[in-house]
Each structure stands twice: as structure tokens, then as C-alpha cells.
Design a protein that fits this description.
Structural class: alpha+beta
Largest sheet: 10 strands, antiparallel
Strand content: 25-35%
Oligomer: single chain
Distance between the termini: 48 Å
Helix content: 10-25%
């Protein structure tokens, strides 16, 4: 809801939050409040929030001799420029033709609009209710530039989006050095800034920094939103936790270089900015042209990090992801990459596909290596024709055979890249980003095609259209495997080279938009070396992302929990891979690999043909179980456990016994259906803690007044896990790792623990939790003891029951994986 009070106070309210600012007598916009809902707020109350000053302060710039109390450096503003005394990081920087940099944007008008018009070159949110769009127009005091500030209110999700557009209404060009998307000036300091940084194979590491003085910034300068610094950030009160405390979450609907910055000034105020990274950016704005900044997403919660997460998850599902796959359950897939890499032919693929179909896989994905002379990563990117030696019948023939097995078929592409050893590069070397006459620094033996050039975008549109039409293709994995270097476009003149990064992203959006429109039934998955472009911009076109190339379940648990703060599990793809893992060489149980991947969009990426029969049976049962519960796991509300400790925060007081510098003591998650009738719980213990017998599972997100059954999935314990301890029970001596050891393990299985309660209240499950079967502590093992060791995990089933007795007493057996 948008209200304008006393013609100068702007009040934007969602179901649980209020955002307020006012027009000062000078024409500047003062930010007043962003926090919990203020129902029925009046103009007098709003004016009470405004800061008062009786006289000027020493060593500060007064804005005007007519009002010596207006000191922009010490005012909470909606937007800031340069040159009038505010020496904090500005919202925008502009250089005019005469070289001057001073800007002073003052209120001109405000309009409440019924609709949200789509941007020309950028994606944005959609589905806003009529009348929830506020446009405030400011004009520079010089009269030649106009700045539009747009606010979009999403009431049910407690989200307010912001964007900005600069219009050049002068007779000469100006150069934009910076135009951010959102500015939030807050009174006070000491906010905890949570950022999600990392690198390839270790994305989304959460780091908490208390910003009490100076500046703290995360940014990307590599041409993509990046695995180094995701654009999602949080700002929390120092006492905030999972379910309590004031928190603000921010994200950017953009896939290129970005910057998130918090600065505390000399007077204890905190300025937060998000938008395009100024480093390496400039834009020549000709007369009568405009420049649109990406859209920023803001949400507030007084209920801690979980409140932020749930708001962001619902917003992304409802107002970012679109198309046929928005609300559709995603298929269980098998990706060929780690099973075959580049070494395959159609016979080998069909053998793998038959094993996949037998296991219950619904989608078979052919990864890299199917085109050109692509037998390694040194050639053929850009030459998108089938390799007929590998695929005699091409994509059409292979896809037909896969479909005959009852599965859909998908492929991998990397359209934005080109190898020097390719026909495309030999024919069009000028289509690659590179500085002519100078050595180029490559990544993964490839160069980046110049998407600032419309001819390149048109060529790729035509080429990918041909590829996607060449067979019965239901899924496309769209990869991008390097960051930018020597970012120079031969299409652009010298004075516009600062526009390369942004123009590239705009070209990418045009390309993706055309293809998604032409192929609405294809499920597209965005991938960029894993998580190098996991952002809301990509999700406006592709309904899911490949979160990381690292499929080690311990690493993936940390990565997926990092994503969970700002992204729903319905957009995060996760795979079960081989053990030892191909990225870490760590050996982990198949049960744990499945458990972690199930809390995302489940896929498999291992050679099913090489699995033992008991492993194939386990995979088959996993898939069967997942299909029964995927609606909850993909689209339910996700809750992190209260005791999960993030270890890179530097705050050891938040850890509980057993946590180490490498891992928390335990991960604990709950996914709950929208009607709160069904839930799936999960725990993962990275490292066993000696002589710690008691564990408990505490659910979150249930209805406290409902009653639920609670059970685990029955399991068998491989006796080889006990090493030569089996000789304490065996009538004959069995040498560890011998043939006899393997034979005994094949025929002798120990029953695992059974957790079963027929009627527990939601309140009891969330407040007290369930004390689980005691763990093995080195003094004995039986069916009343839980073998919960390094890398072990458990899945728990929670279902609503009508009365004191569970109506489905056989569910434990039925849920067997």
C-alpha cells in the first residue's frame, strides 16, 4: 500500500513492514524509517521521525545560506550526489561536458502508477498489484538532468523493490561514472553485514562483519555476479538470530559486476548502497537518452534471518521465476559429465541411459563433448554441430532413443564462449572480446564472445535456435566457464569501452529472452562454473541454477545452506555424485549424498553402470521416495536448524560443543509444506564427537496446534563400518578388508535405529524436539544404538495426524529408502 501524507510524506507498507521518507523544504528526500509495520501512521508521527538541528556544525558544509541547519553529510537521504557537502559514498556520479561533477537532485513530482512497465534491456520483478508503483522524479538544480526513483511494493511477500533511471535533458552528452540501484541511510551503526563470498567449488560462504566505522564492501569485477561475492547481503542488529532480531535483506536483479557497500560516517549513521560496480564502468549518455539501473530487492523482518529467507523465497518464486516451470515439479535427472567426461560414444551413453531409466530417472542430460571436434576443452566452442563419430544419428537420433526409454532428453551448451581452435573464431576473430595486437589472457582455453555486438547476439540466437530444434530436447544446461579478461570490444569506440561489461549483460539478456520465448517448454538451467552467475537476473529467464561444481555433500551442505538465506530450494540444482568425490576425493555414504541433494532439485552425476547391485537398489529406492516428497522438498518453506553454527564469522561464542574450524557440529534442516501438514527433516554430522551419546532433532515451521507423527527412514548398517571390531562377535576371526570381510558384509546387516512417534504436537516438536536414539560411543552396539559417525546423515518424516493415533502406522516400512 502506498500513501502520501500531507503531500510530502511517502509511506509504503507491506503486510508486516513500513518504509517512509519525506520531501524536505529544500527539495531533498529524507529517509525516515524502514522496519516493522506502523499501522495507521500519520503525518505528525512521520515528522516526529525527522531529525532536528538548531544550528550548523563545525567543519561541515551548509547546503544553503538560507538554511544553515541542512547539512547533507549528516542527513539520512534517499539519494545522494557529489559536491554539496555529502562526502559519503554517493548514489550517482556524473561528469558534464565542462568537467564539473556536482549534482543536486531536488523533488519535482511524485506519481502513484497502476502498472510496472518492463525495462528495455534489463529483467525485473513482475506481478505487482495495481497502484503499488511509486515514481518520484527529481531534477538536478542545474535543470538539465532528471532522476526517476521507482518503488514497487509487494505486499504479501514484505518486499519493496527500487530502481533508478537517469534522463539527460541537456544539449550535450554527460558521462555516468556511477548510478546505483538503491540507497538506504540508517540511523545508528554497529549493524552486522552478512555477505556470501567464496570461489569456484566453495560458493556462498557466509561471513559476518560488524560495521561500526569506515566502509565494508563486497563486489564483483569479473564480468559476472560471481562466485566471489553474491549480490545477496543481509544487515542485522547485533542480537539477531534465526528467529529473532531486526534484519534487512537486499539483492540485485542483475548478472554483471555489482557492489554492495556499507559505510558509517563521522556521526554514526550507516549508508547502504547496492548496484552496478563503479570500477570499470562508465556510460556516455547522449542528449535525450536515458540510463536504467538494475532493480534492487529489499525486505525487512523483525523475526531474524529466517524471516528474511522466507520473504525472499516467496518473492523469488512468485515474482522472479516465470514461465511454464515456475510452479512445476522438476524432474530427477542424470547428467553424463562425471560418468563419461569427454570420452563417450552413443553406445556408452545408451548403456548409461538404460541404467538410469531402470533406476527411475526422468531426464537424461548429455553434457559437454557432443559437438565439433570436442574431445577436450581446447577446441570447438562455437562450432555447434553434432560430432557424428560420437553420435551417428545426431541429437535427433539420440534423443529419440532416450525418449523410447521413457525419459526426456537434455543437452549442455556454452553459447557465450569460443575456442581459438574453432571455425567460428577463424571466421570472426573480431567477435571475441580481446585487445587487438596484444596477448590475451584466457580461462579454460576459451575466449568470450562480444555480446555488446548485435551481430553476435543475432548469430547466437540463430545458432542456438537450430541446436534446440535439432532433436527432442526438453532441458538445456547453459554454462559459462570463465570470468572476463582484456575486456575490450572491437565493436565499440574507444570512448565507450567503459560500457563493455554492462552492454555485455544486456546482450546476454536479449539472447536468453529470445530463446526462452521461442522454446517455452524447455527447462533451462543456468550454470557458470557452478555458482559464478547465481543471481536474480538469470532466474528471470532460467527457473533454476547449478549452484556449484562441487558435489561433495559436506561442501554442498555448507553451499546450499548459504544459498538458503536468499534463494529458495526450488531454484537450486543439486546432484548425487561418486565417492570418492571428484572435487575433494572424500569418501562419503550414498545415504548422505542423497540427503543433501534431496534438499534441492535432485539429480545424479555418477556412472550408474559401475555401481554394485545394492547401491543401484538404494538409488532406485531413493528416487522412488523423493518423488513422493519432492513437492515439499522443492516448494516447501525451508528452515535452518537453530544450532547450525557458521564458523567463519569469527564469533566462537556462537558455536556449540564439537564445532571445529572446518565444519559446524551438525547441519539441521526442515522443509514444510505450505499447509503445514507434511515436513521433511534432515541432519548431517560432519565429524563424530567422542562420547556424545545424546542428540535431538528440533523441527521448525510446523503448526504448533497440529499433531504429527515422527519417524526416520529405516536403514541397515554395514558391518564393515566397525572394522575388526566384528571379531568381538564373530565365532571365527575375520581379517579387515579381506574377501571374508566382504562376504560377511554382503549377508549380514545390522538393523539401524528406529525413531517412531505417533502423535506429537507441533509445539513439542519445535520447542523440545525429539531426543533421538543414543549414538555409538565405543562401548557397545545394538539395535538400540545409533551408528552416527563421520559424514552420516538422517532424514525424518513428519506428517499431520488427526488424533492421538497415527492413521498410517505402516509408514516407516513404506518410507524405506
Amino acid at each position: 500500500m502506498i500513501k502520501i501524507l500531507d503531500q510530502s510524506i511517502f509511506c509504503l507498507s507491506t503486510r508486516n513492514t513500513t518504509y517512509m521518507f519525506q520531501k524536505l523544504p529544500s527539495g531533498h528526500l529524507e529517509h525516515l524509517y524502514y522496519g516493522s509495520l506502523l499501522p495507521g501512521v500519520t503525518g505528525e508521527e512521520a515528522r516526529a521521525f525527522s531529525e532536528k538541528r538548531g544550528c550548523e556544525t563545525g567543519n561541515m558544509i551548509v547546503y544553503s545560506q538560507d538554511d544553515k541547519t541542512l547539512l547533507l553529510e549528516d542527513t539520512c537521504l534517499e539519494v545522494s550526489g557529489e559536491g554539496k557537502g555529502d562526502i559519503r559514498e554517493p548514489f550517482l556520479e556524473v561528469i558534464r561536458s565542462d568537467g564539473s561533477r556536482t549534482t543536486d537532485f531536488l523533488f519535482e513530482k511524485a506519481e502513484v502508477l497502476q502498472e510496472k512497465e518492463p525495462f528495455d534491456d534489463l529483467p525485473g520483478s513482475y506481478g505487482m498489484e495495481p497502484g503499488e508503483h511509486l515514481c518520484v522524479t527529481l531534477r538536478d538544480a542545474a535543470g538539465d538532468l532528471a532522476l526517476e526513483l521507482h518503488y514497487y511494493v509487494y505486499e504479501n511477500e514484505d518486499v519493496i523493490c527500487r530502481s533508478a533511471r537517469l534522463l539527460n535533458q541537456s544539449d550535450s552528452a554527460v558521462r555516468i561514472e556511477r548510478l546505483m540501484s538503491a540507497q538506504l541511510d540508517l540511523r545508528g551503526s554497529g549493524y552486522v553485514m552478512s555477505t556470501f563470498t567464496g570461489a569456484w567449488a566453495r560458493e556462498m560462504d557466509r561471513t559476518d562483519t560488524v560495521v561500526s566505522a569506515g566502509k565494508h564492501q563486497v563486489s564483483s569485477c569479473g564480468g559476472a555476479s560471481s562466485n566471489r561475492a553474491n549480490p545477496f547481503v543481509m544487515f542485522s542488529s547485533p542480537d539477531a538470530g534465526e528467529d529473532h532480531g531486526r534484519c534487512i535483506g537486499m539483492n540485485l536483479i542483475y548478472s554483471g559486476n555489482h557492489c554492495e557497500l556499507a559505510e558509517v560516517n563521522a556521526y554514526g549513521k550507516t549508508r547502504i548502497l547496492t548496484g552496478i560496480e563503479p570500477r570499470g564502468f562508465s556510460w556516455t549518455l547522449e542528449p535525450q537518452e536515458s540510463f536504467q539501473a538494475p532493480e534492487a530487492v529489499l525486505t525487512f523482518s523483525g523475526k531474524g534471518w529466517t524471516g528474511i529467507s522466507l520473504n525472499m523465497h516467496r518473492f523469488i518464486r512468485e515474482h522472479i521465476v516465470r514461465g511454464k516451470w515456475k510452479d512445476k515439479e522438476r524432474p530427477v535427472l542424470l547428467n553424463s559429465w562425471e560418468a563419461a567426461y569427454f570420452q563417450f560414444d552413443e553406445g556408452r551413453l545408451m548403456k548409461l541411459a538404460k541404467a538410469a531409466a531402470d533406476a527411475g530417472i526422468e531426464l537424461f542430460v548429455l553434457d559437454d563433448g557432443w559437438f565439433g571436434k570436442r574431445n577436450d576443452d581446447t577446441s570447438s566452442l562455437g562450432d555447434w554441430t553434432e560430432n557424428r563419430k560420437k553420435l551417428p544419428g545426431g541429437l535427433k537420433g539420440l534423443s529419440g532413443k532416450i525418449k523410447s526409454l521413457g525419459m526426456d532428453f537434455g543437452i549442455w551448451v556454452e553459447p557465450e564462449m569460443v575456442n581459438v581452435d574453432s571455425d567460428l573464431y577463424r571466421n570472426h576473430p573480431e567477435w571475441a572480446l580481446a585487445i587487438p595486437g596484444r596477448a590475451h589472457s584466457e580461462g579454460r582455453n576459451q575466449r568470450i564472445l562480444d555480446l555488446t555486438n548485435p551481430d553476435v547476439v543475432d548469430y547466437l540466437t540463430e545458432t542456438m535456435t537450430s541446436v534446440f530444434s535439432s532433436g527432442d530436447i526438453s532441458y538445456v544446461k547453459w554454462d559459462m566457464n570463465r570470468i572476463f579478461s582484456d575486456a575490450f570490444s572491437q565493436y565499440l569506440p574507444a570512448e565507450r569501452q567503459g560500457e563493455v561489461f554492462h552492454r555485455y549483460i544486456c546482450g546476454l539478456y536479449r539472447l536468453m529472452g529470445r530463446l526462452v520465448e521461442s522454446f517455452p517448454d524447455i527447462l533451462f538451467e543456468g550454470c557458470a562454473s557452478g555458482g559464478c552467475r547465481s543471481d536474480l537476473g538469470i532466474l528471470c529467464y532460467f527457473p533454476q541454477i547449478w549452484a556449484s561444481d562441487n558435489t561433495d555433500p559436506l561442501c554442498r551442505a555448507a553451499i546450499q545452506e548459504g544459498y538458503s538465506y536468499g534463494y529458495p530450494q526450488s531454484v537450486v540444482s543439486a546432484h548425487v555424485s561418486a565417492s570418492p568425490n571428484h572435487q575433494t576425493l572424500r569418501a562419503t555414504p550414498l545415504e548422505t549424498r542423497f540427503g543433501v541433494a534431496a534438499f534441492g532439485l535432485l539429480g545424479y552425476e555418477l556412472n550408474l553402470c559401475d555401481l554394485r547391485k545394492e547401491e543401484l537398489d538404494e538409488v532406485r529406492n531413493q528416487i522412488k521416495w523423493y518423488k513422493k516428497w519432492r513437492d515439499v522438498l522443492q516448494f516447501g518453506d525451508f528452515y535452518r536448524g537453530m544450532e547450525t553454527a557458521w564458523l567463519n564469522s569469527g564469533d566462537t561464542s556462537s558455536r556449540y560443543p564439537g564445532a571445529t574450524d572446518a565444519f559446524p557440529a551438525e547441519y539441521s534442516w526442515t522443509c514444510v509444506s505450505a499447509d503445514k501438514s507434511r515436513a521433511v527433516g534432515f541432519t548431517l554430522q560432519p565429524l563424530v564427537r567422542p562420547n556424545v551419546q545424546y542428540h535431538r532433532f528440533v523441527a521448525r515451521g510446523l503448526d504448533p496446534d497440529k499433531r504429527y507423527s515422527f519417524s526416520n527412514i529405516p536403514r541397515k548398517v554395514d558391518i564393515r563400518r566397525f572394522g575388526d571390531l566384528i571379531n568381538t562377535q564373530s565365532p571365527v576371526h575375520i581379517r579387515q578388508d579381506s574377501l571374508g570381510h566382504r562376504v560377511a558384509a554382503k549377508f549380514v546387516k545390522m538393523d539401524g535405529e528406529k525413531e517412531k512417534y505417533t502423535s506429537l504436537s507441533g509445539a513439542a516438536l519445535m520447542e523440545a524436539g525429539v531426543s533421538l536414539t543414543g549414538s555409538y560411543t565405543g562401548t557397545g552396539m545394538n539395535d538400540q544404538t545409533r551408528c552416527y559417525q563421520d559424514f552420516d546423515s538422517r532424514i525424518y518424516i513428519i506428517k499431520e495426524v488427526e488424533g492421538a493415533e497415527d492413521e498410517s502406522s505402516g509408514d516407516v516400512e513404506k518410507e524405506n529408502v
